[in-house]
Amino acid sequence: MALTFLSSSTLLAQGDEFILSKLSSEAKAYGSIEATYVSHMVDKVSEFEAKQEGKIFIDGEKYYLDLGDYTIICDGVTIWTYETSVNDCYVDDVEAMADEGLNPSKLFTLWEDDFKHELKEPTEINNRNVTHVNLYPNQGEEKPFHTIQLFIDEAKMEMVRAVVKGREGTDVTYDVTSFKPRAQVSPEKFTFEANDFPGVSIIDNRL
Prior knowledge:
There is one protein chain. The protein has one domain: outer membrane lipoprotein receptor (LolB), chain A (Clam). It is built from one helix and 13 strands, in the order αβββββββββββββ. The protein has one helix spanning 9-28, and strands spanning 33-43, 48-59, 62-66, 70-74, 78-83, 88-93, 115-119, 123-125, 128-137, 145-153, 158-166, 170-181, 201-204.
């Protein structure tokens, strides 16, 4: 049943709580996720734009992110960032990278973290009726972004688009092009095996 939007701010607050709670319940049943998306970055300061296709596998706090030029792998503790053009792999701790931006493993559940949220007017994206919810980090000054806009297909309980509004004038839009919950993903997907990359240089940034 579609949510009825009312003008009362109290009811709107109940509305976004309801939508995000329902979305969280769905996400907990996803298991492993396989998804593709297109990101569109706009730097309003330098007037630079870039588009990039990505594919991601998620299992709990683990993820495998294929960006073409880069592959980012995380087992929940360690992050490996492999740069194809130079055959280098950078190794970092998850905790040390926590404030650098969005955690890809939270892409479909990020509202569960420390955010205030606000229900906005419904809209349409690619002929799909979507619900618009804004997220504002409670420790906003510590984050590189000030707002995340979520656009949710309530009928399917799927996120269609997320827009990250950066503090330094850079906005990134993520359009989900395919979404497969309960995907069959091998555990080996979430670790970097140097033997699979002959001659790779490992740059370990961990203390």
